[in-house]
Specification:
The complex is a heterodimer of chains A (172) and B (518).
Chain A lengths: L1 H10 L22 H5 L5 E7 L5 H9 L11 E3 L8 E5 L4 H13 L5 E5 H6 L21 E3 L6 H13 L5
Chain B lengths: L10 E3 L5 E6 L1 H13 L3 E9 L9 E10 L2 E10 L4 E3 L8 H12 L2 E3 L47 E6 L11 E7 L2 E8 L7 H5 L8 H4 L7 H16 L5 H29 L3 H22 L8 E2 L2 E2 L5 H27 L1 H7 L7 H7 L3 H5 L7 H4 L20 H25 L17 E7 L4 E8 L5 E7 L2 H11 L8 H8 L3 H5 L1
Parallel strand pairs in B: 2-5, 6-7
Antiparallel strand pairs in B: 1-2, 3-4, 4-5, 8-9, 9-10, 11-12, 13-14, 14-15
Helix pairs in contact in B: 5-6, 6-7, 6-13, 6-15, 7-8, 8-13
The chains are: A alpha/beta (172), B alpha+beta (518).
């Protein structure tokens, strides 16, 4: 126990300030009215869905949960069920074999809901494009609010994308 | 190259991987597998190919098997007539062949004659049962709508037995796959996996790339092993082109591979602690991993090191100042990892969760062909870096680690050992990388030229085989992730354990979904 405490004290606080939202990432005009957004305030529950990614984007989403980015300090957390989520964070070109699961997860997410597509594949289909096995970009399967390019985008870019989505929901 | 007891005409392949290939007939196909099995060798990969495009009158397919034998990688090729598209089943000799053969059928329509399990594996309903995506005459523009099909899971029956279906979307930030648990109380009687959800048609995608650019596809087979696959691809491309990358590139590649190993081990150790309710470990290891990725990003322009390895060499190197930073980071991380290892070792609650959980005995591991890191934790002492060291590993004398306990604790300890060994290697690599050219010019690819790459990634051995077509294109390429071997063993590892230990056991293997489904 003493070692653990010593390690914690020695490490100190490593969290860094959060980036500003980036309106350039917005894929389409905000479809959700301010009035509805006020209902949720700033707290945000995210359900991450890997719809066909190579796992590169997941590694960076994991990194977003490390102490440097202090995600929960911003009121953002990842949840286990789409039924608990305000936002779906979707990666990958949508594999044909994941198309149905992604649709079901989207349907299970309560309104109002936001979708952030992460990575070049999620934005455009990326290197995989559309094929016998791939539906291509996430927007080909479910509506997308914010798209974050990069292969994979580093954690700060993903966080910017999430904050861009959140900014639309901020009260007043 | 030889498989003792079988007289084959081996054709050695150029390049870093010690490999040779030989044509076999049907009887020899089975006999080769049997003799490799009896000689203590292992099945590395199995894939198929449509060869009907090669000549106007060509009317045949082929299946290929890659075996690790004493001298290196032995590839055997069996022609399969289009009129009778079947080949002898190998799953009785190498259980891992079962799913590989099901994938061969889904993609090419070549059946493993006599196999007990002929259920679809990669085909979930995106293409019909009578269409085969890797056939040359497959038309992706004329597919019926995606129709997700039911899958006949094996039912376990008896008093008190019930099922828990999990996935394909899991409860965390994880890749998708389906697990069907049959349980009594909280004890697992049987786990059956259904994977293939992230099948993206990578083998087919290769065929729209040039030999010179296919590394970008290979680097996205499994994002956590992008270096291993890009290097394996580069080896294959260089093997078929007959080029040798400059020494600076070869040393830099090893440095990249070890950095990838360290990054993944740091992440896994944190996640293992977290799954045993030691959240402190996750925060600490993820902090170290973030430092690690940031320096990778600064020096090589990409946090995960994607697209740094290219056929012919590397796209980026490092200078003396960066070498010093890379080495200094190893010192800093080593001090912290040693401290954290002591904390792990002394943490009674954590050890209680780790010890004897998810055991795979060495005997079971040998029979099922458990590969790579998980294999070494179960007495399967194979590591290409030590067994068949290419430059620069031949100058570094990699110390192989191994355990016989085969439980979560062994897989965690192995990661600590390998992490520390990689830090040692990295200091030598940072100091020893010679100056010089980063890459060589690539000559045009000759149609029909074939090459193979074989690299010990952090998870296990990654294989890439490439054959060139006309005009520098890839005619056929195949990437194999060791997760193919290890997923079926995970089904055994959880038997008799309790359901709440599954996430911990699963994480201790940390297999790739994308790598196998690709």
């Amino acid at each position: 126990m003493l070692r653990i405490l010593r390690q914690i004290v020695r490490t100190g606080l490593v969290s860094e300030p959060a980036p500003a939202p980036d309106e350039a990432l917005r894929a389409q005009a905000p479809a959700i009215q301010d009035e509805i957004l006020r209902l949720l305030g700033r707290a945000l529950a995210i359900r991450q869905v890997d719809a066909g990614s190579c796992n590169g984007c997941e590694l960076e989403i994991h990194a977003l949960n490390n102490p440097y980015y202090n995600l929960e300090g911003l009121g953002i957390r990842f949840v286990a069920s789409p039924r608990h989520a305000d936002l779906l964070l979707v990666t990958g070109p949508v594999a044909k074999n994941m198309e149905q699961a992604l649709r079901i997860a989207y349907e299970a997410t309560p309104d109002p809901k936001l979708v952030v597509a992460v990575g070049d594949c999620g934005c455009t289909g990326g290197i995989f494009g559309e094929s016998y096995a791939s539906c291509g970009r996430v927007a080909n399967v479910i509506p997308v609010d914010v798209a974050v390019p990069g292969c994979p985008p580093p954690p700060l870019e993903i966080l910017k994308g999430i904050l861009t989505a959140v900014a639309a929901r901020a009260p007043g | 190259m030889r498989i003792p007891g079988l007289n084959l005409a081996w054709k050695p392949l150029a390049g870093e991987a010690p490999a040779a290939r030989a044509d076999v007939g049907e009887w020899q196909w089975t006999q080769a597998a049997r003799l490799v099995r009896e000689g203590g060798g292992r099945l590395v990969a199995l894939w198929g190919e449509d060869r009907r495009d090669l000549a106007d009158d060509a009317d045949e397919f082929a299946v290929h098997a890659a075996y690790a034998v004493k001298e290196g990688l032995a590839l055997v090729d069996l022609l399969v007539p289009a009129a009778a598209p079947a080949f002898p089943d190998l799953s009785g000799l190498f259980p891992a062949a079962g799913r590989l053969q099901r994938a061969v059928f889904d993609l090419l329509g070549l059946a493993a004659a006599g196999a007990a399990d002929a259920r679809p594996w990669l085909r979930h309903g995106a293409w019909p049962a009578d269409a085969f995506p890797l056939r040359r005459d497959f038309d992706a523009s004329r597919l019926p709508p995606n129709a997700f099909a039911d899958y006949p899971f094996v039912r376990v029956e008896g008093e008190g037995v019930h099922e828990i279906p999990v996935g394909p979307i899991h409860a965390g930030i994880i890749e998708p796959g389906h697990f069907r648990f049959s349980i009594v109380g909280e004890k697992v009687l049987r786990l059956e996996e259904r994977l293939g959800y992230v099948h993206k048609g990578i083998d087919k995608l290769f065929e729209s790339h040039d030999v010179a650019s296919g590394h970008r596809v290979a680097g996205r087979v499994s994002g956590d092993s992008t270096v291993a696959f890009a290097w394996a691809y580069a080896q294959a491309a260089e093997s078929l082109l007959g080029v040798v990358p400059p020494p600076r590139a070869r040393w830099t590649r090893a440095l990249l591979l070890e950095r990838e190993r360290v990054a993944n081990h740091l992440g896994d150790l944190g996640a293992l602690g977290n799954d045993a309710a030691v959240a402190f470990a996750l925060a600490q290891f993820m902090r170290l991993k973030e430092d690690w990725l940031r320096l990778s990003g600064e020096v090589f322009g990409h946090r995960l090191l994607m697209d740094v390895i290219v056929p012919g060499g590397v796209a980026r190197g490092f200078d003396a100042v960066q070498a010093a930073r890379l080495a200094a980071q190893c010192d800093a991380v080593e001090a912290e990892v040693r401290e954290l290892r002591t904390i792990f070792d002394e943490h009674a609650g954590l050890q209680d969760r780790f010890l004897t959980t998810g055991r795979v005995t060495p005997d079971l591991a040998r029979r099922l062909g458990l590969a790579g890191l998980a294999g070494r934790a179960s007495g399967q002492a194979f590591d290409l870096r030590a067994d068949f060291p290419c430059t620069p590993y031949d100058a570094l004398a990699v110390r192989k680690s191994g355990y016989a306990a085969g439980d979560v604790a062994a897989r965690a300890n192995l990661r600590f050992d390998e992490l520390l060994e990689s830090l040692r290697l990295l200091r030598s690599l940072a100091a020893g990388t010679p100056p010089g050219e980063l890459r060589v010019e690539l000559p045009p690819a000759r149609a029909g030229a074939f090459g193979v790459g074989w690299v010990e990634g952090w998870r296990g051995e990654c294989l890439v085989a490439v054959e060139a077509g006309e005009g520098g294109r890839i005619r056929r390429a195949h990437a194999h992730d060791p997760s193919w071997q290890n997923w079926p063993v995970l089904e055994h590892a959880v038997i008799g354990n309790i359901v709440p230990d599954f996430p911990l056991i699963n994480k201790s293997f940390n297999l790739s979904y994308s790598g196998g489904d690709c």
